[in-house]
Amino acid sequence: MLRFLAGRLANGLLVLAVVSLLSFGLFNFIGDPVNNLVGENATLEEKAALRASLGLDQPLPLQYARFVGRALQGEFGMSYRNLEPVSALIASRVPATLELALVAAALALCVGIPMGVYSGIRPRSLGARSLQVASLIGISVPSFVIGIVLILVFSVGLNWLPSFGRGEVTALGPWSTGLLSASGWASLVMPAITLALFQLTLFMRLTRTQMMEVMRAEYIKFARARGLAERSVYFRHALRNTLIPIITVAGLQIGAMIAFSIITETVFQWPGLGLLIIQAITFSDVPVIAAYLLLIALLFVLINTVVDLLYFAVDPRLRSAH
User: Fold this and answer.
1) What's the structural domain count of the chain?
2) Same structural domain for residues 8 and 47?
3) Which CATH number covers residue 254?
4) Is residue 266 part of a domain?
5) Could you give the 3-state DSSP secondary structure of residue 177?
6) SS3 for 9?
7) CA atoms within 13 A on the CB side of 227
8) Of 20, 61, 72, 246, which alpha carbon lies 20 to 30 A from 320's?
9) Angstrom distance (rounded) from CA 226 to CA 219
10) Which residues span the domain enclosing 54?
């Protein structure tokens, strides 16, 4: 186990080093932030002074070395757009994104897996076929269309839910949450459904396919021959042996929901990392972009490590092999 964790740690550090180099090098060429920070009437001397104060007049390798040194201390410089520390700016947006992504992930898993189990157990039933048709719609329709339709129905038409923002937020030390207020939950409903719908249908279809394959296995026939209850056969034997691919996909998709909730946050003006990175790209805010990509790389490294550890918990064959 220790060797396994050490190997995963080494791979993760290599990934972070490559991502930091590529992100910093690539996004230094998406635009000149000095032209965005000063007015059109600024003189060349004023632009040169601002460039020097930001350290942009130094060679690129030196800029990268400074970036890595600050990153190791949790600092990523100053935002060109907001003129405040990038670490503080990202920290203020992380709670909103994590709250949205985790609620959406819980919704997708708690609804999608049971639907997949039912469809896999009774694939020819009317309910299973109806779920299959619904899943095709969930996969095919873009998330921004789903968000706009929800806004038109529940905000504009029925006036039940707010169409933007996060609602009333409660501060718990450095963390902020909307889960302790009614307006926070009301603001979260539509963005969470929008973000979760594609993942829900993905989990349902994956679970259905795995359950249909497992239900044909010999050990399932043997379990039934022993007289075990159908509930025990379905959930103790069949579902448990489908968890490896489900855990793999779930880990990647949860990471994707945190990292790439950009469209959902833009549609609902949700004040999270997705909206922040869109604004940073528009403004050529290089420190924010580079810090965001490095944070996302770290997120996926951590999620993949957790997924690998879950393999050991679920599959005893892996524990015996190590």
Assistant:
1) 2
2) yes
3) 1.10.3720.10
4) yes
5) strand
6) helix
7) 0
8) 246
9) 10
10) 2-72
Please state, as a whole number, how many other Cβ atoms lie within 10 Å of the Cβ of residue 30: 12
Q: How many residues does the chain have?
A: 322
Q: How far apart are CA 284 and CA 20, in angstroms?
A: 17
Q: DSSP letter at 29?
A: T
- Position 33: which residue type? P
SS (H, E, C) 288-319: HHHHHHHHHHHHHHHHHHHHHHHHHHHCHHHH
pLDDT the model gives residue 318? 55
Token couple for 284: 């050529």
In terms of pTM, does the model score above 0.90? no
Question: Please, where are the H alpha helices in the chain?
Answer: 2-27, 33-37, 44-53, 60-72, 86-121, 126-140, 143-150, 182-214, 218-225, 230-232, 243-259, 262-267, 273-282, 286-314, 316-321
List the chain residues with pLDDT less than 70: 1-2, 4-5, 26-33, 35-40, 230, 235-237, 311-322
Structure tokens at 241: 């042996």
Q: Which two tokens stand for residue 14?
A: 């290599």
The answer to whether the beta carbons of residues 57 and 316 sit under 8 Å apart is: no
Confidence at residue 117, expressed as pLDDT on a 0 to 100 scale: 84
